[in-house]
Design a protein that fits this description.
The chain is of the alpha/beta class. It has a single domain, classed as Vaccinia Virus protein VP39 (Rossmann fold, 3-Layer(aba) Sandwich). It is 39% helix and 22% strand. It contains 12 helices and 12 strands. A 7-stranded mixed sheet has the order 4-3-2-5-6-12-7, with helices on both faces. A 3-stranded antiparallel sheet has the order 8-11-10, with no helix packed on it. Strands 1-9 form a two-stranded antiparallel ribbon. The structure holds S-adenosylmethionine. The site of S-adenosylmethionine has 17 residues, from loops.
Amino acid sequence: MCSSSRLYVSQKIKPTNMDKSSSMRSLFSDHSRYVKSFQLFLDRSTEHQCMQEFINKELPDILSRIGNGNSSINVLGIGSGSGEVDLQMLRKVEEKHPEVHINNDIVEPSAEHVMLYKELVSRTPDLQKMSFKWNKMTSSEYEKQMKEENEKKKWDFIHMIQVLYYVESIEETIKFCHQHLEKNGKIVIILVSGNSGWASLWKKYGSRLPLNDICNYITSRDVKEAVDRMGLKCQHYDLPSIMDITECFIDGNEEGELLVDFLTETLHFSKTAPPSFKSELMEYLKQPECSTRRDDKIVFNNTLGAIVVEPLF
Ligand SMILES: C[S@@+](CC[C@H](N)C(=O)[O-])C[C@H]1O[C@@H](n2cnc3c(N)ncnc32)[C@H](O)[C@@H]1O
């Protein structure tokens, strides 16, 4: 996961200080290790639990007025992954609007995630009032396709959960979503918070890590600033979350190494980072800017931020 879009050239942390002789490579260059490390991150963190709390406590109110009284509600999920978070949110739409049919358009470039999402839908009971259409492509490919087809479709609820790091331009993506938002519609964006350990780690070491073209260091603070600059209305929510990184400090621990790969977005960081850089970064991970100690555990600050954008009219 990552901070600041290509549009914010001044803020973007470029990997200019990276040691040219370093053999560090982006974690994204090995998709299966990325997926493994992401699953482990979900296991060791309260990432989905804190989203669930937001979905249970805040989302019902946010969604209460969408739909304009029509017989169907249109939902667009961008970067939906394997769909677990989507289905939780869709249940809230259903609870608030029990009479309507829910049409879901999903934009997800990973074939593996699309397959997992389809499997999840096929084994989940009581989805008769929902339909799903998967588009295996990136958000910019989807935007392009809609423009080429002169498609004017609008959605009542658009969500982008932990995905804006990977889009070509966050402003263009938000603009596209806002143009296609129904009256009373809502856009929900979740990213790591500007107060999280991620933000500190990226600020201090982002320039020395092998960030690749498909991932930017963006926090919910950057998105809030972009939304404000665009003159759009939005609300911000903090979603406290933690990640147990204790294993990262056990020498040779395979799962600890996978988590460090996820934290640094570097393939086999422990084996490929220059030793002095590795020990400096590992030490920083324990510092209060990133983590706290709870009993015998080292707990990384994984706080997320949710931003809810509304139509202007
Ligand atoms: C960190 S995962 C989040 C998945 C899910 N929303 C969740 O919270 O569990 C990011 C997802 O965004 C997808 N993605 C990456 N680049 C994208 C792009 N340019 N447009 C749309 N989705 C993208 C990835 O394939 C992945 O499924």
